[in-house]
Amino acid sequence: MKTLSLMLLLALLAAPAFAALKGQAAPDFTLESSVTTQPEHTKLDQCKAEVVLIKLWGVR
Q1: Which among 20, 40, 44, 60 has the fewest CB atoms less than 10 Å away?
Q2: Distant-in-sequence, close-in-space partners of 43: CB < 8 Å, separation ≥ 6
Q3: What is the DSSP letter of 30?
């Protein structure tokens, strides 16, 4: 229950920051590597009109 409360509090605090970004274009980037098969697209601008999910972990 404590973890859920903390997650809700963080979501409420972060909401204004995310709202300020709504409608803005994402910065372009190039995919350096993939843990799965060779990707069809390696740059974000090649993915126009597609849903893109970017999951980051272990970022330093």
Answers
A1: 60
A2: 28, 29, 30, 31
A3: B
Look up residue 15 and give its two tokens.
Answer: 């909401």
Contact 43, 29 (CB under 8 A): yes
pLDDT at 60 over 70: no
HSE (side-chain half, CA atoms, 13 Å) at 39: 13
How far is residue 48's CA from residue 35's CA, in Å, rounded to a whole number?
A: 23
Query: Residue 25 and residue 44: Cα distance in Å, rounded?
Result: 11
Digit-coded pLDDT (tens) for 30-43: 877 776 667 776 78
Q: What is the pTM of this model?
A: 0.39
Report the C-alpha gap between 59 and 45 in whole angstroms: 23
